[in-house]
Amino acid sequence: MEDLRTKRKGKILAVKDLPTLPPVLDEITKMIEDEHCTPKQIAEVIAKDQVLSAKVLKMVNSPVYGFPRRITTIQHAIVLLGFNVIRGIIISTSVFDVMSQAMVGLWEHSLGCATISKIIAEELGLKDPEEFAVAGLLHDIGKVVIAIQLPEEKEEIQKLVAKEDITYLEAEKKVLGFGHDRVNSWLADHWNLPLPTKVALTYHHNPESAEFYEKFAKIVHVADFITKVLEIGNSGDELLNTLSKKDFVDIGLSFKKLAKIMDRVLEDIIEVLTFIPK
Ligand SMILES: [Fe+2]
Ligand SMILES: [Fe+2]
C-alpha cells in the first residue's frame, strides 16, 4: 500500500508537466521568493505570455475580486492584489483549463467558494480579503489534479460516491488512501504557496486540526459549506456535512453578519457564474 501511495504521489506531482501550466509559472515562483524583484519585473515576465495575461486580467476584473473592469495592466493587478494572489489565479485558471468542460461544476463551486470566502473576510473586517478569495479558488484543486493525473482512480471514486452514501473525500480515501486535502498540501509545497494558503487548502475539511492559521482555514470551511448549501456548482457529491456552531462562532460570525453575507453573495453570484475564464 505504501509503495502504491508513493507512486500515486509521484504521479500527482508530475503535474508540473501539464501542458496548460504556463512555463513562466516556475520563473514567477522563483521571482516572488527574491525580495529584490519588483512588480514591474514580474509583470514583464507574465506579459510575455499573452494568453496568460489575458486570463489573469479577466479574472482580476471579475466580481470575485471586486475590481470590475478597472485593472488594465498586469503590473497594476500585482500592485493591487499582491504576487501571491496573481500566482494563485495563474495556477487555478491553468489547471482548470485542462478540465474546463468535464469539471465545469467544480469550477463554479470554486468560484462560489472564492467569492464567499472574500465576502466573509470583508464582513469580518480582515485585511487582504483577496488572499481568502484565492484560497477559496484553490481549495479543491487537488480534486482536479487527481482527475488529470489519475483518471482511472477518479472514475472509481465517482462510482463509489454514486453507489455508497459517502462523501467525495471519503471515497477518495477509500480508493487512493488519501484525499484531495492531502494532495492540496503536496501541491502547496510544490508551488511554494504562502503558509496561510497552504493551511486553508490542507484543512478546509477539518480546520480544527490546523496548528496555525486556524481561522483562515475555518473561513474557507464555512465558505465551502455555504457554497454547497446554495447549490453553487458541483463539488462531486450531494452530501452536506454539518457545520459546527463552534467554527461559526470562532471566526466571529453572528446571525446578523451571516444574513448580510448571504445578501451580498446572492447579489454577486449570478455575475460570478456567468464568468468562465478562457
Ligand atoms: Fe474539499
Ligand atoms: Fe469544496
Can you describe this structure in just a few lines?
This protein is mainly α and 278 residues long.
Properties at a glance:
278 residues, mainly alpha, Hypothetical protein af1432, 16 helices, globular, binds fe (ii) ion
Second rung of CATH, namely the architecture of the domain at 2-17 and 101-273: Orthogonal Bundle
Oligomer: single chain
Helix content: 55-70%
The kinds of small molecule bound in this structure are: fe (ii) ion
In terms of DSSP E residues, the strand content is under 5%
Query: What name does CATH use for the topology of the domain at 2-17 and 101-273?
Result: Hypothetical protein af1432
Q: Which CATH top level class of the domain at 2-17 and 101-273 fits?
A: Mainly Alpha
Give the CA-based shape. Answer: globular
Biggest β-sheet, characterized? none
Average per-residue pLDDT, rounded, comes to 90
Low-confidence stretches: none
Radius of gyration: 18 Å
In CATH terms, the superfamily of the domain at 2-17 and 101-273 is Hypothetical protein af1432
The arrangement of helices and strands along the chain is HHHHHHHHHHHHHHHH
